[in-house]
Specification:
alpha/beta; six-stranded parallel β-sheet; 25% strand
């Protein structure tokens, strides 16, 4: 089988490996599509661990079941989540499934950028989902990233009627626009610096899309006028630019929650003034990955059309062109979501 092996963004090599055999409780999936995530472009994170096979947004067809594997049949169309929790550790008992050590250490093998992959017994049992007939393999790859968006909305405790600021409208940001509307948010201000992405945000349902002013204080005053009251009840920062993070802190109302969604590099930082947090009772939150509850909600939203998955996919590539897909995703040209397709 063909397996894409990542060395860096410019160097992805196709290797030929034996098709693996599923063990007890396992599942062999023939990959049909796998999305390219921004995380697949982060060389500072990936290169020290290279060579490795990426791909954590796969869909495919069940080709073979190991002994004792229940709940699925050969030929089933499935999505498999790459991480699964143990469900019994202290983090899982508290509902913090993405902090579970098992969650962080489990992976599909060798990865979604291969013609076939193995799902362990834990994957099969806890977070493998049947795709409805009307949902394509390509759109099914959006289950995982949309689940991350849903996880963030839950972490921020967004409620119907909240005034929300969203900074950043890449593919994830546009999923936020649609999911927040599903959540009952009617006052939403979106910030984006690229004109073509601003237009996309409007197409996906954002009524107020702004280019931030150079003066953060002036921008905060403008946001208060648009939103009413003292500003945003919830601020979601879906951009890894440090200036976006600093701006997000300024746009929050007293008692608001500011959620950091995008990942800057480990040595990057922003100034933080505890007295400002104290007197304004700001809550800072962050969101990492998604759990088995989020993936099910994501599948429901895509199936119902509450999130337009097909409109988010702008580029499709064969696995041989994975490097090009990664570079396209890392760039700031007219690309939202890239999907690797397998025959």
């Amino acid at each position: 089988m063909k397996v894409a092996v990542y060395y860096n963004n410019h160097d992805v090599r196709i290797e030929d490996r034996p098709v693996p055999e599923p063990g007890p409780g396992e599942m062999l999936v023939q990959t049909r599509a796998c999305g390219v995530c921004v995380a697949d472009t982060m060389e500072w994170y990936l290169v020290p661990r290279a060579p490795l096979t990426l791909g954590h947004e796969p869909t495919g067809v069940v080709l073979k079941l190991g002994a004792g594997t229940n709940g699925f049949r050969e030929g089933d169309r499935v999505f498999v989540h790459h991480h699964v929790p143990c469900l019994i550790c202290e983090y899982c008992r508290q509902g913090n499934f993405t902090m579970c050590s098992t969650f962080k250490s489990t992976h599909i093998k060798p990865g979604g950028f291969a013609e076939y992959f193995l799902a362990s017994a834990s994957h099969v049992e806890r977070d493998t989902l049947l795709l409805p007939d009307g949902l394509s393999f390509d759109v099914g790859t959006l289950i995982e990233p949309l689940a991350c968006v849903i996880h963030a909305i839950r972490k921020a405790n967004v409620r119907a009627g909240d005034r929300v600021v969203l900074i950043g409208t890449g593919a994830m940001g546009l999923m936020f626009v649609q999911a927040l509307r599903f959540w009952g948010v009617r006052k939403l201000v979106v910030y984006e610096v690229l004109e073509w992405r601003q237009q996309k945000a409007r197409e996906f349902g954002a009524d107020c899309v702004l280019t931030p002013l150079e003066d953060p204080q002036a921008e905060a005053e403008r946001a208060r006028k648009v939103l009413g009251g003292g500003g945003a009840d919830k601020v979601i920062i879906a951009a890894k630019d440090l200036r976006a993070m600093e701006l997000g802190m300024r746009l929050a109302n007293r008692g608001a929650t500011v959620l950091f969604f995008a990942t800057p590099q480990p040595d990057e930082s922003i100034p933080l003034f505890p007295s400002y947090l104290f007197f304004n009772e700001l809550q800072l939150a962050a969101s990492y990955s998604a759990d088995h509850l989020d993936t099910r909600t994501a599948l429901d939203l895509l199936t119902a059309g509450a999130v337009d998955g097909e409109a988010l996919i702008t580029h499709r590539f064969p696995v041989e062109d994975l490097s090009e897909a990664i570079l396209q995703t890392a760039g700031r040209q007219h690309c939202l979501k890239s999907v690797i397709q397998f025959p």
